[in-house]
Amino acid sequence: METRKVQVTGGSTYTVSIPKTWANDNDVSAGSTVEFYPEGDSLFMTPVGGDDQTEGTLDITNLEGTELIRAVMTMYVSGFDVIILESGRITNDQRGMIREATQSLVGLEVLEETKDEIVIRDLLDSSELSIHNAVTRMRLIAASMLEDALLALRDLDRDLAHDVIQRDDDVDRLWMVVSRIFRATLRTPKASEELGLPREVCFDYHSSARQLERIGDHATKIAHLTLEIDQEVPEDVVVAIEELHEEVVSVIDGGMDALFTDDSEEATRLANDVREQVREIDQTARGIDELLRELDPAHAQLVGLIVDSVSRTADYGGNIAETALQKAAPSP
Q1: Segment 66-110, tens digit of pLDDT
Q2: What parts of the sequence cross the membrane (predicted)?
Q3: How far apart are CA 143 and CA 211, in angstroms?
Q4: Closest-CA residue to 68 (of 42, 32, 92)
Q5: Which CATH fold would you assign to the domain 130-328?
């Protein structure tokens, strides 16, 4: 850490020198222009670049299958606008995996392809992305997935179960967008200013989006389990699970409402109500477990796993409420 004294020039302008090492590392010299971003009692300074596009290169020679897909996703989330994938010779299998990764991410398109290089570019303007809208969309999709997964269970509707499984890709795609936006706010204060949100709020949204992504995962798990069930679930068990679901929806909605409100008192009230509801849901789930004792072991195990997934989604709603409480707390 270095310190500098603030001086006054011209009687009205405050000036302060900047460390020479930092200036050299960031190509700042006499005549350069820098940008200032106020945030609370802090002031961030960054050099003005000629091109905001960030480019990254990755050697994919030894990457195959899901490992290659994960590598492309990592480059995307890290914030690269142009991703160059290189190898001595890119195989057909690798090209297929790269296309699959590109199609699963918002805004990415393959621009160039040669035998040893593939160039991918993010065509979206990052300044037009909204982390609030992305999280809101995740909330709607995850909630509808959970509802439809339980409808599929009631009717043993295999088509609806498959549809729920496919929709998980939409939640994952939005989760990647939220992660990319959040990491951008950590990297540069300009991203936070363009969003119009403090970085702490972006962190709260990112944490909550992770919980919504897990809710989508459990809805998908319920759909997969439903596909394994070959006999109708007793009506009393179905009704009990639907009542549990209603309580879970109340928890998730309460947690998200607490997160999105700008009224600290209202957020605190909503979040504390949610925490109480989560405790009650644990008791409801235990009551369903008692009903499952009447089923044959194999059937009871599958339905029991579904009950567990439904109750776990309440825990994730409770985690969102905890995040809302932290967001509503006074800043130190």
Answers
A1: 999 999 999 999 989 899 999 989 999 999 999 999 988 988 889
A2: none
A3: 12
A4: 92
A5: Methane Monooxygenase Hydroxylase; Chain G, domain 1 (1.20.58)
